[in-house]
Write a structure and sequence with these properties.
transport, 4 strands, alpha+beta, unfolded protein binding, Bacterial Protein-export protein SecB
């Protein structure tokens, strides 16, 4: 019996992933140039900034927060500014460090993005502006780009020392 327990402890744990909760952590909408903005022809220049933050809540339990900041300008005047922090609590176990970083940096934000996109669109509509459906985002590509940039910065720092 002791051998069975020892064998079970040595076997690697199978990867586990579960979504515990998806929630809106923070949201804001500003339309600083209303109502004048409604009298102009609508040809906006829309800018999207994204950021993610991760924190450990417990062993194997993480909060990931995806922040979207959308700024729309029309004739160089700000039509609206929307910021949404869409968060999720995820249980992740049995992954190596690289896989865990990829899961937290790309996979979890890709789960949160549709919720954040919907929240942005709802606020824009409630502000009486035309619907704004943000294009899908390839978080795997963004993560790979970020890792490549980080590796280049580290190589540059080592070359300086």
């Amino acid at each position: 019996m002791a051998e069975n327990e020892a064998n079970q402890q040595q076997e690697p744990q199978a990867p586990q992933f579960a979504i515990q909760r998806v929630y809106l952590k923070d949201a804001s909408f500003e339309a600083p140039n209303s109502p004048q903005m409604f009298t102009k022809q609508w040809q906006p220049d829309v800018n999207l900034d994204m950021n993610t933050a991760t924190s450990s809540l417990d062993e194997g339990v993480f909060e990931v927060v995806l922040t979207l900041t959308v700024t729309a300008k029309n004739d160089n005047d700000t039509a609206f500014l929307v910021e949404v922090q869409q968060a999720g609590i995820f249980t992740i176990a049995g992954l190596g460090e690289a896989e865990l970083h990829h899961t937290l940096g790309a996979f979890c934000p890709s789960i949160l993005f549709p919720y954040a996109r919907e929240a942005v669109d709802n606020m824009v509509n409630k502000g009486s502006f035309p619907a704004l459906m943000l294009a899908p985002v390839n978080f795997d590509a963004l993560y790979a780009q970020q890792m490549q940039q980080r590796a280049q910065e580290e190589a540059g720092n080592e070359a300086q020392h």
